[in-house]
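Late entry, evening session. Most of the bench is empty. Finally got around to the prediction I had been postponing all week. Sequence below, unchanged from the version circulated by S.P.
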Amino acid sequence: MKSFWVKFILLTGMLWLGVDTLTSTQTASAQLPPVSVQLGGDSGDESTLSLALQALLIVTVLSFGTALVTMMTSFTRIVVVFFFLRMGLGTQQSPPNQVLIGIALFLTIFIMKPTFDRINEVALQPYQQENMTQMEALAAAAGPLKEFMVAQTSEDDLLYFMDMAGVSPVSSIEEIPIHIVVPAFTLSELRIAFQIGFMIYLPFMVIDLVVASILLSVGIMFLPPVMVSLPFKILVFVLTDGWFLLVESLVQSFNRGV
């Protein structure tokens, strides 16, 4: 079990560090004599990373775990929408940040589960059973993850980053470098999150305007409109089963059929 998690962290770390570049470099230098520094394991496996490099990758993944979750999964869109909801309700720190982030994290696991299952099937299990080298497992694991991100990414954003990086048009998703897919995916996620956040914030703003107009018309100047509108906003949100509708809409907004 310990070996399984070590290999999982290594595989995730190589994905995050963009070792698809190393794969192309390894192919270009295939005619050179292989050089491998082995501190343990089978010295005949030239594609296995040394123990020191494995330890470095594990530490790197643990350091950049937050960025890995937020930049390559559905977490960004969900948590931004939740914060827009709290701003619209005007409840300040309720629900607290820990609750919103926790809900967003578990929704991310739910949405990303088909992708994680494919990575486990095509890359992690063969790597765990030593039927694949680390580079082969990396190439296999990058496929499902890039497919998910590209499915959520605007074509204009993807072409924009490809143009800036000087990457020529490709015929398949596998040919797109991951360092291009990730920023394009993040930009698209932020745009969609703000669009959803605007649609959520608008009804609450209308309630604030109506309450402020009523208070002004009856001459109540000393009572803050936000204090009066807050119970009405919470009542409307509860009566419409707002949490269910919001979560359902967020989950269905992701194209998980890829």
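Two things to note before I forget:
The two ends are 30 Å apart (CA to CA).
Residues 148 and 197 are 22 Å apart (CA to CA).
Will write this up properly tomorrow.
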